[in-house]
Each structure stands twice: as structure tokens, then as C-alpha cells.
Write a structure and sequence with these properties.
Layout lengths: L3 E10 L6 E8 L1 H15 L4 H5 L7 E9 L9
Antiparallel strand pairs: 1-2, 1-3
């Protein structure tokens, strides 16, 4: 298991038009991907029961995962 200083995960919740980034520190790529999914669902009020029932609106799509030894700054417009 490889830990990275910084990991940027970029993706979106089903139905969103735009991707959104999140940065995680001192973790693995697999853990950062799961954290991203959990964070996006939580921010959008997707319930655990919707996930268990496999409703399409609960799907999270990850487009990019970037790792870096230096801090990653995200600027959103």
C-alpha cells in the first residue's frame, strides 16, 4: 500500500453537469477514492438506503485521480 502526501480526486454525482475536485492528504489512492464518494454523497444528502438500493442518483463518477508530493491547490470559479 502506497501512501501519498496529497491526492486530488475529481468527479461528480450522477446528474451533475460539472466535475468537482477534492484534495486528501496522507492516504492511499483507494482510500481517497472512497472518501471522495462518501463526501460527495454526504454533501448532496444521498442516504445510505439509496446506496444500498442501488438507485442511479446515488452513483458517483470519478474522472481523475492525481497524486503529488507537494500541496495541491484547487481554485474553483
Amino acid at each position: 500500500m502506497t501512501y501519498h502526501n496529497y491526492i486530488a480526486v475529481i468527479g461528480r454525482l450522477h446528474g451533475d453537469d460539472d466535475d468537482h475536485p477534492r484534495v486528501y492528504e496522507q492516504t492511499t489512492v483507494a482510500d481517497a477514492r472512497q472518501l471522495f464518494v462518501n463526501d460527495v454523497r454526504s454533501d448532496n444528502g444521498v442516504s445510505e438506503s439509496a446506496v444500498v438500493e442501488a438507485y442511479e442518483f446515488a452513483n458517483v463518477y470519478i474522472g481523475y485521480v492525481l497524486t503529488s508530493a507537494s500541496p495541491i491547490n484547487i481554485e474553483e470559479n
